[in-house]
Amino acid sequence: MEIVLSLAIGILAASGIWLLLRPRTFQVIVGLCLLSYSVNLFIFAMGRLTLAQPPIMPKGGFIDPALYADPLPQALVLTAIVISFATTALFLVVMMASRGVTGTDHVDGKESEE
Amino acid sequence: MSAHHLIVAPILIPFVAGALMLLYDDRQRKAKVAISVGSTVALLLVAAELLVGSKGNAASGGNDIGFYLLGDWAVPFGIALVIDRLSALMLLLTALLAIPTVLYASAGWHRQGKHFHSLFQFLLMGLNGAFLTGDLFNLFVFFEVLLAASYGLLLHGSGQLRIRAGLHYIAINLAASLLFLIGVSLIYGVTGTLNMAHLARIVPTLAEADLPILHTGAALLGIAFLVKAGIWPLSFWLPTAYMAGAAPVAAMFAIMTKVGVYVILRVSMLLFGPAAAASAGFGSGVLIAGGMATVAFGLLGVLASQGLGRMTANMVLISSGTVLGVVGFALAGGGPEMLGGALYYLVSSTLATGALFLLIEPMSREEGGIAAMLALTADAYGLDEAEEDEPEVGLAIPGTLTVLGLSFGACVLALAGLPPLSGFIGKIAMLAPLLAAPGFDPLLGWAFLSLLFLAGFATLIGLVRIGIQTFWATDGSVPKVLALEIAPVLGLIALLVTLTVRAEDTLRYMQATARALHEPAIYADGVFAAPRVTEGSAAP
């Protein structure tokens, strides 16, 4: 499972960075989305990988914490997803404004002269 | 140790004020200005009270760590707001910069787009939250609040230049936020906590094998903040973004780089201070080198700039690079004196760059560009009819230029670090201990000193050139400047003068702050001593 997850994070991050460095705004925003997916998976992995273990403990008595998933990274991921969703939406609006004002989808607002 | 509800007020006041203003239509400007100014004045009062409180008394050794447990969880588990000398200082600086900026904006800039005052209040909320929080992830949340507000503010007034600069600014900050998250999660993976006070306790006890991961996490976190602080080579976005922003926005952005500096200072002194054993001084080399490179880059930028806007943005870089460099020296064991001087310099240069950003537009108004544009946008929006006339003040013709010129001159003195204003005192207070500090190559100290003086010299050349163009080489037409526009600038300059006259008192406060930063145990013990309101299992 570790190798699958790390490969997934790596491929997502690599594609994200490549797209982020491209000159078209659409590529940049897709790149940012892919990067944020990989970061979210990464945060999740930092709480150690567990299979089919609940993050919430039942009430009362001593419980072996090793039998439970770490709830904190899950909460962090949730927050991070919400925030990156909102900021990406904001970025999309600015992108569209830029497209409307400059008439091009190049990130510099003008086509590069070859 | 103290816990009172005042600590959460710097976050709640702008939040409530900003939300309240969303309910009003944008045409109700008088009400909005009143709420906005009221909120910032309240912030100033609260910050002053917190600052006095954080001085503590003789029993607490002059350091009082205030705290506010959100949700009343016991300390390492829940999120705590922490106020100490440094946080209180930054809160006060924010409020002092915010009041003139809001007043200036109410002279006309706030008409250029929608919801200026709400966005401004949310920016303040994010800033104050970032200064207050004692938790790394909560810091991320407040950073996003302030960034989201700053995206809106940077685009305030619209126009092609702003949209293009905004696009780059947002893309860079989104990428930096992702690095922030990676850094935070790495640190959590190693230490199992995100509470800064808890981290300060855990880091010295970490196993050797875990240190590389911790350092990687801290370095990624550092990159995210250094992007905000504008360290070279992560600073190429900064001059364009600051230049493109509307005048009051740019003035408030003067403190945004300082948020990055603040977090670097806070986290590195807590985690990698002298007590951190194997990790002590981590990153100090990068900060010194990066700080010096930033100053050099800013220096060249100042000399190369044609307009005052870009020049001032480069001065922001110089100021931020200087403080970062000194933080690096202090982290490497340079002692608290120079750090105290750097804090003084930080306050002085932030206020001075803020004042200069506010001066840009009135000074260049005679060229007709922005004044004409202001009138044009007002026409386009069709907003002007319902309003009363602006409170215009018919300053006499020589009066306008004299006031502008004197204000500009004061900014030049403060930024170039010439006596008698506070920039000079700040530089002396930083550099004298640096040269006297043992354990450094004296060459490094002298290199830093000469770089700073070169930067001051470049600032002088650049600003004097602009001053000559504006004040001596004008042909006739004198700009009409409203009293409401020049009063904030004069207020900021009065603050600089106060800072100079009361230099001994302020420096004493800064030195005590720097000493407290050198002893992370004060912070950590203070936070851990925080008692809950309801003890034990009172909660259902």
UniProtKB/TrEMBL annotation, chain A:
InterPro entries: CPA3_antiporter_subunitC, NUOK/Mnh_C1-like. Pfam families: Oxidored_q2. Gene3D superfamilies: 1.10.287.3510. It is a multi-pass membrane protein. The keyword Membrane applies. The keyword Endoplasmic reticulum does not apply. It is found in: Cell membrane. The chain crosses the membrane at residues 6-21, 28-51, 71-94. Keywords: Cell membrane, Membrane, Transmembrane, Transmembrane helix. Belongs to the CPA3 antiporters (TC 2.A.63) subunit C family. NCBIfam families: PRK09094.1 (NF006573). This is Multisubunit potassium/proton antiporter PhaC subunit. It comes from Cereibacter johrii.
From TrEMBL, chain B:
The lineage of its organism: Bacteria, Pseudomonadati, Pseudomonadota, Alphaproteobacteria, Rhodobacterales. InterPro entries: CPA3_Na-H_Antiporter_D, ND/Mrp_TM. Residues 134-436 form the NADH:quinone oxidoreductase/Mrp antiporter transmembrane domain. It is a multi-pass membrane protein. The chain crosses the membrane at residues 6-24, 33-53, 65-83, 90-109, 129-154, 166-191, 211-229, 241-265, 277-303, 315-336, 342-360, 395-417, 446-468, 480-501. NDH-1 shuttles electrons from NADH, via FMN and iron-sulfur (Fe-S) centers, to quinones in the respiratory chain. The immediate electron acceptor for the enzyme in this species is believed to be ubiquinone. Couples the redox reaction to proton translocation (for every two electrons transferred, four hydrogen ions are translocated across the cytoplasmic membrane), and thus conserves the redox energy in a proton gradient. Pfam families: Proton_antipo_M (PF00361). Keywords: Cell membrane, Membrane, Transmembrane, Transmembrane helix. Belongs to the CPA3 antiporters (TC 2.A.63) subunit D family. It is found in: Cell membrane; Membrane. The keyword Cell membrane applies. It comes from the Bacteria. It comes from Cereibacter johrii. NCBIfam families: PRK12666.1 (NF009309). This is Multisubunit potassium/proton antiporter PhaD subunit.
